[in-house]
């Protein structure tokens, strides 16, 4: 079968590889019908997430049709259209029993290399999905692949960040960073009825998209963001900030943007081992700083899917490029160059 494979740091290629087969009783084989390139695929390619070996298949956002099921699979059957979670928790440990699936010590991720379960990814014609009963959902017949696709990763990731922020009706919310996850965070935050969502970025096209999703755009290149937010909140600052950038200045800056007692929920990826932190300011302001880590997709995707099915959220609206799987390398180039907001591939 055809698949997008890792070659070396910074390099991917299309290759012919062998088709996966059922290895464990709870496995299914999915024929991939739609898959996407995620920002974290770039982290794998550029080595920020270590452990990928040459020839490994990338990709973890996908939908498809079940081709084959292992003997222990109960909830899905061959022919079912399914959406997959990008993470595969074990389903049996202390954390999984408490539905803290993303804290599972045995959690695996498709296409993330040997340190995260050594699972091949889904930018391919077929993919093996372990723990299928837990990690697949049958797609509602009224929904297209594209409509539900991001509930398996970036939309539910953003929703998880919004839930962890405990947004209350009437809150002033700031979404910091309007890449794909930030734009999803704007859509997710809307579900909690804030009075306003300020969307912060420096790229005009991203700010326009955020505005289209109901946010008030704030161009961080043109205004001082903390002053701007304070000016619009009687000098208090925002109630909640969703940090979707994943860069140290963004994190420390967030402390200036929120009000005393404000909440910061962090979904941007931080891989730096340490940083300087405005400790006294954070203490005095009584900042509630919550790191979301890997999002609890399996614990929260049913709620996220309900937002999509009801029309309250439309994650597919950020798709900018649709390419055949065989053009996946070009898709990576467009995405890495930020010429594409979101690339969807069709095997
Ligand atoms: Zn992802
Ligand atoms: Zn577990």
Poorly predicted ranges: none
Succession of helices and strands: EEEHEEEHEEHEHHEHEHEHEHEHEHEHE
Main sheet: strands, sense, barrel: 7 strands, mixed
Q: Could you name the CATH homologous superfamily of the largest domain? A: Medium-chain alcohol dehydrogenases, catalytic domain
CATH class of the largest domain: Alpha Beta
The number of helical elements comes to 12
Bound molecules: zinc ion
For the CA atoms, what is the radius of gyration?
20 Å
Shape: globular
Q: What does this entry show, briefly?
A:
With 347 residues, the chain is α/β, with parallel strands linked by helices.
Written account of the structure:
Helix content is 28%, strand content 26%. The chain has 2 domains: 2-139 and 314-346, Medium-chain alcohol dehydrogenases, catalytic domain (Quinone Oxidoreductase, Chain A, domain 1, Alpha-Beta Complex), CATH 3.90.180.10; 156-291, NAD(P)-binding Rossmann-like Domain (Rossmann fold). Strand 10 (172-176), helix 6 (180-190) and strand 11 (196-201) form a beta-alpha-beta unit. The mean pLDDT is 97. Strands 3, 4, 5, 8, 9, 16 and 17 form a 7-stranded mixed sheet that branches. It has a 6-stranded parallel sheet with strand order 12-11-10-13-14-15, with helices on both faces. The protein has a two-stranded antiparallel ribbon with strand order 1-2. It contains 12 helices and 17 strands. By secondary structure, it is α/β, with parallel strands linked by helices. The N and C termini lie close together (10 Å). It is globular. Helix 8 (225-231) packs parallel to helix 9. The structure holds zinc ion (ZN) (2 copies). The site of one zinc ion has 6 residues, from loops.
